[in-house]
Amino acid sequence: MTKKIICVWIGTFKSEDQFYNNYLNFDYTNDDAPESEFAKDSELKYYDEDFMESWWFSKLELHKLTEYKDDLLDSEYFFDELISELKKRDLSNRHSISFLFGEKGEHSTNEMLFEYNGMKTIEKPIEFVFKKEYQL
């Protein structure tokens, strides 16, 4: 059996371009430690961006998220709980949602997510909202 995990952040960005090209993109000028603004803000030293899914909306709304549920890896294991968590939050000024997947087992990736406890700082364009472990 493979242990899996998902972590989710919501964010506030003025434009889709700012989110994808400036915030999520890794800067590889320092080959030893490439990083992105997302990595710094989420307080993750490293993550494999191949296991990240991020969506930008002009306004983040639950019914829009639900429309894309089937496009999201393993959504049947966490999506309803995520929606319940998001219902408790004010999404009126939110534009993005990012999903980062991790796995322990034969094809381990992003294992540090199992120890991740969220962000210590709150004055960032993203907010950590959800973490869920599940098994396949």
Describe what you observe in this structure.
The termini are close together. The chain is built from 4 helices and 4 strands. It is 22% helix and 24% strand. The protein is globular, with a radius of gyration of 15 Å. It has a 4-stranded antiparallel β-sheet, sandwiched between helices. The protein has helices at 16-24, 37-42, 62-67, 79-87, and strands at 3-11, 52-56, 96-104, 126-135. With 136 residues, it is an alpha+beta fold. The protein has one domain.
Kindly list the characteristics that best describe this protein:
single chain, 136 residues, alpha+beta, four-stranded antiparallel beta sheet, globular
Shape from CA axes?
A: globular
**Major beta sheet, strand line-up:** 2-3-1-4
How many structural units, i.e. domains?
Answer: 1
Helices, by number, come to 4
Helix content: 10-25%
The CA-CA distance between the termini, in Å, is: 6 Å
Largest sheet: 4 strands, antiparallel
The tally of strands reads: 4
What is the CA-based Rg, rounded? 15 Å
Low-confidence stretches: none
- What structural class do the secondary elements suggest? alpha+beta
User: How much strand content do the residues show?
Assistant: 15-25%
